[in-house]
Write a structure and sequence with these properties.
This protein is of the alpha/beta class. The protein is built from eleven helices and 14 strands. It folds into two domains: about 210 residues, 3-Layer(aba) Sandwich (Rossmann fold); about 80 residues, Alpha-Beta Plaits (2-Layer Sandwich). About 35% of the residues lie in helices and about 30% in strands. A six-stranded mixed beta sheet has the order 6-7-8-3-9-10, sandwiched between helices. Strands 2-1-4-5 form a four-stranded antiparallel beta sheet, covered by helices on one side. A hairpin with a 2-residue loop joins β1 and β2. α3 crosses α4 and α5 runs parallel beside α6. The longest helix is centred in the middle third of the chain and has 14 residues. One of its GO terms (molecular function) is ATP binding.
C-alpha cells in the first residue's frame, strides 16, 4: 500500500480533530479527500507528511512509519500545503535549484519538472511575477522534484480562475498516471473530473470511502428525488397519500420536490396520483444525484 492509516486520532487540547481514522490507498490511485472546514483534512495530511504527530494510532507512507521513519517518509512524499510557501524574490529555476540542494538531487531534474508542469514559458521570471496558476505549478514542480511515489496535495486549486483550474486538474491527472495522489478540495467538480475514489470525513470521522462511480450509483439506488409540477395548486396534506413518500418540499405554488426511499420508479405512481385528483403533470423528472448532493447529505450533521 502507498498509504496506510490505522486508528489515527488527534487532539488539540480537549478538541478531538481526528477519531479512529482508518483507510488504505493503493499505488496509482487518485483519491479525493473531502470534508467541511474543520473536519480534520489538513490535520491528517500533516500527520502523513510528518509535520504533526498523531496522539493515537499509526500511519505508513510507502511502507515507512511516519513516527519512526520520518526521513524516509519525507523522501518518498511530495507535499503541496494549502498555503503554498514560495520565496517570491527568487527566480523559478533558482527556487527549484535551492530545493534540489535540500533533497541532494541532480540539477538535471530541474528542467524535467519545469517541462512536466508546463512552467517553461515562465521559467525565467521571478516567482513574485507569476500568476496564481503558475505559482501553483511551481509548488507542484517542487513537490515532484525528488520524484516521489506519493503526492499529497492540500487544496491545490484554491484561488484559481476557471482556465487555471482546468490546467492544474489536467496536470494532476497526468501526474497521477504514474504516482499515488491524495488530494483535499472543496470543489466537487474537481473530484469528479480527476479522482478514482472519494473519502469523506466529518467531525474527525470517516463517513464515506468508496469508488466514485460506485458511490454515486449506490446513493442513487437508495433514494429517489423527483421534481413534479402540477397545473394547479394542491395542499401538502394531499401528497401524504402517495405511497412510500418520505419527504416533500414545495418549490413554488405548483411545483414540489418529493423524496422516496425506494429503488422502484415512482413516476408511474405520481401519474396515477395526478389522474385520481384531476391534475395534469406539466413536468416530472428525477433530480440529479451528483457528488455535491451526496457530500451535503453525508456532512449535514
Amino acid at each position: 500500500m502507498s498509504i496506510e492509516v490505522k486508528n489515527i486520532s488527534k487532539f488539540y487540547g480537549e478538541q478531538q480533530a481526528l477519531q479512529d481514522v482508518n483507510f488504505t490507498i493503493k499505488k496509482g490511485e487518485i483519491v479525493g479527500f473531502l470534508g467541511p472546514n474543520g473536519a480534520g483534512k489538513s490535520s491528517l495530511m500533516k500527520i502523513l507528511t510528518t509535520f504533526l504527530t498523531a496522539d493515537e494510532g499509526e500511519a505508513f507512507v510507502n511502507g515507512f512509519n511516519v513516527n519512526t521513519q520520518a526521513k524516509q517518509v519525507q523522501k518518498s512524499v511530495g507535499y503541496l500545503p494549502e498555503h503554498n510557501p514560495l520565496y517570491l524574490d527568487l527566480y523559478v529555476r533558482e527556487y527549484l535549484a535551492f530545493n534540489a540542494d535540500v533533497y541532494k538531487i541532480s540539477k538535471n531534474r530541474i528542467e524535467e519538472v519545469i517541462a512536466l508542469t508546463g512552467l517553461t514559458p515562465e521559467a525565467n521570471k521571478k516567482i513574485g511575477q507569476l500568476s496564481k496558476g503558475y505559482r501553483q505549478r511551481v509548488g507542484l514542480a517542487t513537490a515532484l522534484l525528488h520524484d516521489p511515489e506519493v503526492l499529497i496535495l492540500d487544496e491545490p486549486t484554491t484561488g484559481l480562475d476557471p482556465n487555471q483550474l482546468v490546467e492544474i486538474r489536467d496536470l494532476i491527472k497526468n501526474i497521477g498516471k504514474n504516482k499515488t495522489v491524495f488530494l483535499s478540495t472543496h470543489i466537487m467538480q474537481e473530484v469528479e473530473a480527476i479522482c478514482d475514489r472519494v473519502i469523506i470525513i466529518n467531525h474527525g470521522k470517516i463517513v464515506t470511502d468508496n469508488n466514485l462511480g460506485n458511490l454515486i450509483a449506490e446513493e442513487k439506488g437508495k433514494k429517489q428525488e423527483l421534481i413534479v409540477e402540477f397545473d394547479k395548486e394542491i395542499i401538502a396534506e394531499l401528497l401524504l397519500e402517495i405511497e412510500q413518500l418520505q419527504a416533500h418540499k414545495q418549490i413554488n405554488a405548483t411545483t414540489w420536490e418529493l423524496t422516496f426511499e425506494t429503488e422502484q420508479d415512482m413516476r408511474p405512481v405520481l401519474f396515477d396520483f395526478a389522474q385520481k385528483h384531476q391534475l395534469r403533470t406539466l413536468q416530472l423528472f428525477l433530480k440529479d444525484k451528483n457528488l455535491e448532493v451526496i457530500f451535503r447529505e453525508k456532512t449535514k450533521k
